[in-house]
């Protein structure tokens, strides 16, 4: 198991126009874990949104070798969209909300494990040029490899493993 922390990658806008998540083309879309169409069909994230700031809190438990956390991501909308796509691998996501000027609204979450992606779906359009925040809670196991948030150890000069 290789849990990775949540990552929203900053994309460089392309001159060929905006990539807006696929909406209304369900027959061509990948399928989320719950059987619904996943609104994005590429490994690279859409350039409809730019992350501005991450406020991340992580609570590791070194006894149970797992962790929980909360992330609040400040977003700048490059295009009108109702979908935020981000990367997350083998994480349990909960309590996902949109912090908008109009107030706090829950977001629906779809997962597409093949590309390690989540889609956060809003009931209303997020408007180009406006700032929003997404907040979500997560939990996962500490990795046994050097991927994501992992446990490590070292041997002291006296031979003690820490």
Brief sketch in words of this structure:
The chain has strands at 4-7, 49-61, 66-77, 81-89, 92-100, 103-106, 108-112, 117-126, 131-141. It is mainly beta.
Strand count, sense and barrel status of the largest sheet are: 5 strands, antiparallel
Strand order of the largest sheet: 2-3-9-5-6
Low-confidence residue ranges:
1-19
- Please give the CATH architecture of the domain at 29-141: Sandwich
Describe this structure in words.
With 162 residues, the protein is mainly beta. The protein has a domain of 113 residues: Immunoglobulin-like (Sandwich). It has a five-stranded antiparallel sheet with strand order 2-3-9-5-6, with no helix packed on it. The protein is elongated, with a radius of gyration of 18 Å. The N terminus is likely disordered. Keywords: Signal. InterPro entries: Aminopeptidase_N-like_N (IPR045357), Aminopeptidase_N-like_N_sf (IPR042097), Peptidase_M1_aminopeptidases (IPR050344).
List keywords for this structure.
single chain; 0% helix; mainly beta; five-stranded antiparallel sheet; 162 residues; Immunoglobulin-like; 9 strands
